[in-house]
Design brief:
alpha+beta, Glutamine Phosphoribosylpyrophosphate, subunit 1, domain 1, 7-stranded antiparallel beta sheet, about 30% helix, binds glutamic acid
Amino acid sequence: MPPLRLSCLVAGLVILLTACAPQTLEISGPRPVVESDTFMVAAANPLAAEAGRDMLDRGGSAVDAAIATQMVLGLVEPQSSGIGGGAFLLHYDGETREVAAFDGRETAPAEATPGLFLDEDSEPMDFWETVVGGRAVGAPGLLRMLELAHEDHGRLPWAELFEPAIELARDGFPVSARLHALIAQDRFLDTYPAARKTFYTPQGEPLPLGHVLINADYADTLDAVAQGGADAFYQGALAEEIAGTVRRAEGAPGLLSVEDIAGYSAKRREALCNPYRGYLVCGMPPPTSGGVAVLQILGILDFFDLHPQAASFEEIVHLFAEANRLAFADRDVFLADADFVEVPVETLIDRDYLAERAMLIDPNLAMSAAEPGLPRVAAGMPVQQHGANTSHLSIVDGEGNAVSMTSSIEQAFGSRLMVGGFLLNNQLTDFSFEPEIDGRAVANRVEPGKRPRSSMSPTIVLDSDGRFVLAIGSPGGSRIIAFTASRILAVLDMGLDVQQAIQMPNVANRGTVTELEQGTDAAGFARALRRRGHEVSVTEMTSGLHGVMALPDGTLHGGADPRREGVAVGERE
Ligand code: GLU
């Protein structure tokens, strides 16, 4: 397999990708972009994408396909997302050209206090001690959100959307290389009996590659939800089992109650849309920081010419890193659940404000540290850990409706607690562990009923007439923001197709260090960037981007990240 060459991608306008000499990045690409005249599903696993295609084949909508795809993801990619977790979904209506936003983020239990992650000496707890077990389990939001999106944009009957996942859960599916590797390397997955039974052989070995995993409990759960709607999950026996498992988790009991689960509600929110290079880029509002940060980065870069003929790749990486640094300075201080704290969203993405921020960038030299651009009302919060988790899917249906959805149980395998064949999230670790810093409350501190700040950045780009252009997003913790913003830039500024853009090496800056993806040509820029004053780290950066793009003639292009096992699929030949 010939791996990527960044320089080739940068010169993508003039040089064919395939003409580039092989290098060392261990990914399964490059791949050609997938084309379709009718519809497209791009998702993190072939079986899941296939379930989505099935629904589109039957005349289903993008939301129908997203639900079917997600239900299979919860089975075949259980480490990443599922009904025990949460998600954000952006929907584009092909007829009205409106973008709608759905919030299925987990909520903190009513009994949670700002000191949830402090030890008896009022010091922040060790991260891993909080991940495993019940402490960080929030009320799951995925199913309520999908139900809401289906109410607004579904076409096929709810129950039908669960058929592929139920069948696959009963018949079994082959454990993928990625799932096998993640089981094998996980230090905590065998902590509790249900996950031990599901992911290991009776001899205690990680399930081998290709092992046919049957998950009858998951099939039963989905059967109940297919028949009874999301209520079958949020009320009754299943909710009691979830709360009981969390509250009785050995060594790390949590606070989630049946009332928290029954009281969960998904929210319709207003998408945030800002112009960029004459396009309109739409993202998700808080509680994710993703939408605001992506729009800030692009809004700042809109004041620079990034066309490959105007800027070298080194210059583009420098400017991109600086724009990221500025966005993270604001994000750390202001972004949190806007239902609980005031988040100056409008100001943060205002063009005049972003012009001021852009003026702080020296085109040649890195700034030493970025400060937030507005008076601080709260203390900041350090960047958190991230794992090999979370999933993004992008779908366009036959009617031109689109879905861009990122879904997560937080760390890989979440809390490691399992109920009804699915894993429970540890999403509450996305809150600040410290409720107060230097006497100032942290905006993203734990509060009962509050949603933890996210970085998930499902995005939809429209043209100046409001026609759909691109749906994209990624997993990757707080690097999601850079992964997503850089691909929008690659498509709109560099003219790459969506697959080339996704394959492009990753670059990020989350406030201090400029990170370059190990094993790619990006690493070759380390010296030059250091000369410009960047503190540089060359590191593994496993994005999982999935995107669908519409060309002006209506042809759809689908792209999947070769760093993971996803695919893009159009109509059957
Ligand atoms: N929990 C993270 C978030 O909501 C996503 C996890 C990840 O991708 O690492 O931002």
